[in-house]
Structures are given as structure tokens and as C-alpha cells.
Amino acid sequence: MSSSPWVSVTTTVFADHQYHYNETELQTxxxxxxxxxxxxxxxxxxxxxxxxxxxxxxxxxxxxxETVVFAxxxxxxxxxxxxxxxxxxxxxWRHRGMRTRTNMFIVxxxxxxxxxxxxxxxxxxxxxxxxxxxxxxxMCFLNSFLNAVCFLTSLQTLMYISIHKYLSITRPLLRIxxxxxxxxxxxxxxxxxxxxALTTKILSHYEYKPRTxxxxxxxxxxxxxxxxxxxxxxxxxxxxxxxxxxxCYIRIFQEIKxxxxxxxxxxxxxxxxxxxxxxxVTVTLFIVLACFVLCWLPYCVYSNYVTFVEDKTTIPxxxxxxxxxxxxxxxxxxxxxxxxxxxxxxxxxxxILCQEPSYVVSDGPLGPRxxxxxxxxxxxxxxxxxxxxxxxx
Length: 393
Hints:
Elements: H1 5-13, H2 23-29, H3 34-41, H4 64-94, H5 101-130, H6 136-170, H7 178-202, E1 206-208, E2 215-217, H8 224-262, H9 269-308, H10 317-341, H11 343-354, E3 359-364, E4 367-373, E5 388-392
Antiparallel strand pairs: 1-2, 3-4, 4-5
Helix pairs in contact: 4-5, 4-10, 4-11, 5-6, 5-7, 5-10, 6-7, 6-8, 6-9, 8-9, 9-10, 10-11
């Protein structure tokens, strides 16, 4: 990349800053030589010896249509993400029967998604509307750090879910306690925090890059060392977890197929019912994983693309918007999937939305069930269990 007076002045003046200011602020605070101003504004005249700047636009440049589309996309995602994941957490919190080992993972996933909806997506919307980073250096670091933490924690949680279901179905005698589940959940957050620290502070640095909606690690330079580092991060944080999940779900569905073939020979009805419930839960979690991969696939393509492009000014602004809006949309999809696939969550949502405390939701080993409480005000102190009717699916 050719050097220019404009770039050299920018580097000197803002060497201590981790993000870029827009061109207007630079020219106002530190006037450039006439030749540099002519070069940066595109008016060359007879200045044939002046070198063209490497960056034509320092600030983000979206068209009006792109701004409207991405803003609408983000607002819809935020509403469904915050509302939906809050309901997921509330349903499990309010009903003791929903506090299963699998639902502990689901709540952890909902917490990471809730943080995306309440902290990260609004920042992207602010940057999109202002066409520049206006929130300061501390928020730039926090935005970069939390983006990495939430993404990696969600991916690690999905990986641990697949391991948990693999062990539950292929080794039913192996007991996975809630304490072990908590250790897995803490390991997911710890891994996300460590990797986020590596990419934002230790092995790289955070900055606001032109034509983006958020802060993040600096673009990798086109060198052998940078490319090797990129591949190590990609393999350890993305491809290895996806490989583990793929292996687990293939083995799970193989085991389910074998069981279905043996089902006619086995008259143990309770065991078949439990296995059928496990199968339904596994299919639901696989759909959650598939949705995660599809939504974050544009980001994976985008991150690899910007790694191998030497001239970063050729990266279109809409590419970053599509990558992150699609990724943030995944956080809104999970509560919808739970409502579609799980009667327990569906009835829990109804209780919250309709404000009718007549459902006691449970998600036990024999499948989801609901106790419908009689609304008899005069019965006062009669124990709740005496006026409950259990309905099984």
C-alpha cells in the first residue's frame, strides 16, 4: 500500500488513539498542507507530484437505502432479542420443573443473546445512523470485547449442549450432574473472555474501522505471521467447535435410529417415552445449531474476505452490515424456535404475555407437562396440589 502525506499526518497525530476519526474532524483540528488538502478532496489541478491518499473516506459511507434497511433490521432484531430471551429466562426462573440440565444451557445461551440485544445491537444502530464512531475510546474497547465474548460464549455453549446430549443418549448410565453443567457454562464464558482479551488487547488491538458498524480487532496485515494467527484463531474458536458438534449430532442420530429399530422388541413403555422426549429435544437443539450457523455464516465469509484483501478501502460498507445484522438476528431466532418446538416454553410464554397465573410448567423426563390450577378464590388454604389437573403430551 503506497504511503501518502495524509496517512503520515494521521498516524502522527492519532498514534495514541485506538480508533479513527472522520476526515472533517482531522482537517479542523490539524490543518494539512495545501497539497495534502487538494489531494484529499480530489482537486489536483497541476499538483501532479502529489501522492493520492490511501483512504478516500475515513468515515463510514452508507447510502440512504442501506441505512434504512440495516436500521430496520437491527430494530426488529433488538425487540425480539430482548423480549424473547427475557421470556426464556423468566420461564425457567419462575417454574422449578423447567430447571433441567438442558435448560441450564438454554438459559446461558439466552443471557449471551440478551446482552447482544441490549448492549451491542444498539451501539451498531447508533454508529449506523451517525455514520461514524461517536461513543469514545472506552466504549470502543467495550464494544469490541463484548462482541467477541458473546459470540464465542454462544458457540461454546452450543458445543457443550451437543456433548451433553451425546453423553445422555449414547451413555444413559453416565450421570451428568448440575454441578458439571455449571462447570461447562463457566468454561464457556472463561474461554470467550480469554479469547476476547487476546484479540483486543494482547495479540492485537481494538479500533473503529471505516465502513463498519462497530469496533473490533484491527484488520490483519497481509503477512505470513498474521495469516497463521488468523487460521489458529479460526480453527480453535470456530471450526473445531463446529467439528465437535457435527460429530456429536451424527452419533446421536445414529443411536436414535438404532433405538427406533429395537423399539418393537422392547415393551418398556416408560423408557421408550423418555427416549422419544430425548429425541425431540435433540432435534430442537440441532435446529438451534443450524440457525446459529446460517445466521453467522455471512460473518465468517466477511472475516475471511477482509483478511485476504490487501486494499481495505475496497471493502464495501454493506458487507459489514449484512455480516453483523445477520449474526445479531440469530439472537432473536432462538426464543421463536423454543416456542415452536417446546410446549413447555410455549405455555410459559402465554403465562407471561397473558398475565394468567394458571399454568405451572414442567419439563421432566417423561416430557413436557402442565398443571392447570383451578381458579376458585373461596378455596383459600387448600393445598395447590389438590386442585391440580395434570395434562400430558
